[in-house]
């Protein structure tokens, strides 16, 4: 099985479920604490491009930091570079877990999406 980089927050129950699922499939995991060690701007930009998702899907919209900063109303008017800079400035703004093998990327944990992306 492939080696996956998993940006996760250890206390997060969704992250724990995702890690457990990936390990059960036999993947080797490089676990990174998204709060202490978020991806850099170039790495995050590459992951966004690889994912094929809109950049706003990478925001943890249910998180406290997102709400405190009032980003719901601000994101639409921000340039892509500004949004990337904001995401990497605080890992808690990034929807987690963020999983990549350098070719594919998943954001969050939905078992069906993981089956498609990581069951090869």
Task: Spell out the blueprint of helices and strands.
Elements lengths: L2 E6 L4 H12 L3 E6 L7 H11 L12 H5 L2 H4 L5 H10 L8 E3 L4 E3 L3 H8 L2
Parallel strand pairs: 1-2
Antiparallel strand pairs: 1-3, 3-4
Provide structural commentary.
The structure is a single chain. This protein has 120 residues and is α+β, with helices and mostly antiparallel strands. It has a single domain, classed as 3-Layer(aba) Sandwich (Glutaredoxin), CATH 3.40.30. It has helices at 13-24, 41-51, 64-68, 71-74, 80-89, 111-118; strands at 3-8, 28-33, 98-100, 105-107. The chain has a four-stranded mixed sheet, sandwiched between helices. The model has no long low-confidence stretch (mean pLDDT 95).
Short characterization:
This protein is α+β, with helices and mostly antiparallel strands and 120 residues long.
List keywords for this structure.
120 residues; alpha+beta; Glutaredoxin; four-stranded mixed β-sheet; globular
Tell me roughly what share of residues is in helical segments.
40-55%
Say how many strands there are: 4
Any idea what the CATH architecture is?
A: 3-Layer(aba) Sandwich
CATH topology: Glutaredoxin
Terminal CA distance reads 8 Å
Radius of gyration: 14 Å
Q: Output the number of helix runs.
A: 6
β-strand amount: 15-25%
Structural class: alpha+beta
Oligomer: single chain
**Mean pLDDT across all amino acids:** 95
Assigned CATH superfamily: Glutaredoxin
- How many structural domains can be distinguished in the coordinates? 1
Task: Give the SSE string.
Answer: EHEHHHHEEH
Overall geometric form? globular
How does the major sheet shape up? 4 strands, mixed
Can you tell me the CATH class? Alpha Beta
Strand order of the largest sheet: 2-1-3-4
